[in-house]
Amino acid sequence: MTPPRRRRRNPEAQPPPEPAAAGGGKAGEEKQPERLYILTGATDGGERASIDLVTLIVARSDPEPTATPEQAVLLRLCRAPLSVAEISAYLSLPFSVVTVLLTDLLAAELVQARAPIVRQATPDRSLLEAVMHGLQKL
After folding, report:
1. Which portions of the sequence form the region Disordered (predicted)?
2. 48 vs 44, 52, 106, CA distance in Å?
3. Within 13 Å and on the Cβ side, how many CA atoms surround 34?
4. Is 112 exposed, middle or buried (0-12, 13-18, 19+ CB in 10 A)?
5. Is the C-alpha dihedral spanning 47, 79, 91, 68 positive or negative?
6. Residue 128 included in any domain
7. Distance (Å, rounded) from C-alpha 71 to C-alpha 64?
8. How many CA atoms lie within 13 A of 88 on its CB side?
């Protein structure tokens, strides 16, 4: 069985291309702002919170009506603990922008930053000895 042959379209018979949507994107496509500093607002270049990719963020309260849309989304997203890397991925924003937004929320005490839970590097010696004795009895 042979596959069907593709027919070439006549370029003159094609409908004219649709005009581009405002902002240069295709119709129905979500477009990021041209400059990400629009999302972070007017910052004075002050100190950023010491946040890394694995810092867990938890919202302390629901968003207030005066909160910016980005802050409201962050507060709703962080009802359960999320790492900064997850927040960045969910919002499709760079880590640096998320850090600035979180710094503002931390200063207003609307979110809490927690260090990730670090497991003990080496197991307890008594546990290893108990396992060893149990294996020897077999």
Report:
1. 1-35
2. 11, 11, 10
3. 4
4. middle
5. negative
6. no
7. 9
8. 16
Provide the number of structural domains found in the chain.
Answer: 1
H helix and E strand count, the chain: 5, 3
pLDDT of residue 138 exceeding 50: yes
Q: How far is the C-alpha of 51 from the C-alpha of 101, rounded, in Å?
A: 11
Q: Output helix, strand, coil percentages for the chain, rounded to the nearest 5.
A: 35, 5, 55
Please give the residue range of the domain that contains residue 88: 50-116
Q: Is 33 contained in some domain?
A: no
Position 7 pLDDT exceeds 60: yes
Residue in 63, 93, 94, 96 with CA at minimum distance from that of residue 77: 63
Average pLDDT over residues 82-104: 88
Query: Is 28 inside any structural domain?
Result: no
pTM summary value: 0.56
User: Which tokens sit at 1?
Assistant: 């069985």
In the chain, DSSP assigns E strands to 56-59, 82-83, 111-114
| Whether pLDDT at 25 is above 50 | no
Domain-embedded: residue 20: no
